[in-house]
Amino acid sequence: MTTSAHGYDLATKDLDPPLAIVDLDAFDANTDDLLRRAAGKPIRVVSKSVRCRALLERALARDGFEGLMCYSLAEAVWHAELGTSDDIVVAYPTADHEALRRLAASERARAAVTIMVDSTEHLDLVDAALGHGHPDIRVCLELDASWRPLPGVHVGTRRSPVFTPGQAVTVARRIVTRPGFQLVGMMAYEGQIAGLGDAAGKGLQNRVIGWMQRRSAAELARRRGAAVRAVREVADLEFVNGGGTGSIETTGAEDVVTEIAAGSGFLAPTLFDGYSHFQPRPAALFALPVVRRPAKNVATLYSGGYIASGPTGPSREPSPYLPEGLRLLGFEGAGEVQTPVTGEAARTLRLGDRVWLRHAKAGELAERFLAYHLVRGSQVERTVPTYRGEGQNFG
């Protein structure tokens, strides 16, 4: 079900674009689908893909979602002190001395927040920030989840240097014997499965990606299982986290995984259109006004150059969504101050009309707007601040 451009226009008729909305019917439907796909395994909500406290709280209020996965330690401490969650994992190692000092100084934050490490150098950094004799800091050991089918071949994100079960247990032993640290979890993120659609390209490309993902998932299940079992011999792990929106089924099928991470599936950006086994509904949209009509089949929108991170190319550009039948101009694309669109629908657009677009990535849209207008049908139910609207910028 897709709300028409008219419905979104009506809901926001008293608001001036540029503006951003979240369609609550789509958000809630996507939430239901994430839970269905997880088949009872808890989902940890990934904050970087949402970046709006009201929406994070909406997800956490549902049974089946347990805890946050933050991308910044400063962000995690902020949420802990606000009481958003009492179970927060920071997905990336930190070099933020000020945030570490805030963590150590807050009993509430120390009880809630787990930081990520993949080497004893990360422990050294914490000691340098806090001094020896600091309170216990909860840590999670990250296992690299990339696929390495041949020497020198690396498929996946460049994350932890800990790849083998032997490497994992070696680092785990060093953590548990180090004063001031408590090893409570393990994590492995299979980006080559969770973040890469198997139906985004043409036939042969999709078949190759699907083959790679099946082989990678099988290899990782064996290696992750062995690594977790080895680490559990030296540490009493509270959780083992894995996966992402695109790999919920395969990650959740592994017995050693106790929880799955997911975030993009709530808002369904364009990069998540290309999966064969699930089809989320577009929930986060932004509207730009028509400010020029340079030709009969071209309408120029104000602003709009919201390019997503990652490898540059068309897949990282925003996509015109409503009215249907619009596309960007290849020569100009989405620009800092203007974004021309063309297509049959452009002929009917007038100055002041709105064009609704989708971002390529879920959370990055929130960096462009101070608020999300939460829409249901043809009404705005609430307007809530994004991180930026709350004066927060976590980089």
From TrEMBL:
Residues 22-192 form the Alanine racemase N-terminal domain. Pfam families: Ala_racemase_N. Signal peptide: none annotated. PANTHER family: D-SERINE DEHYDRATASE, ZGC:162816-RELATED. This is Amino acid deaminase/aldolase.
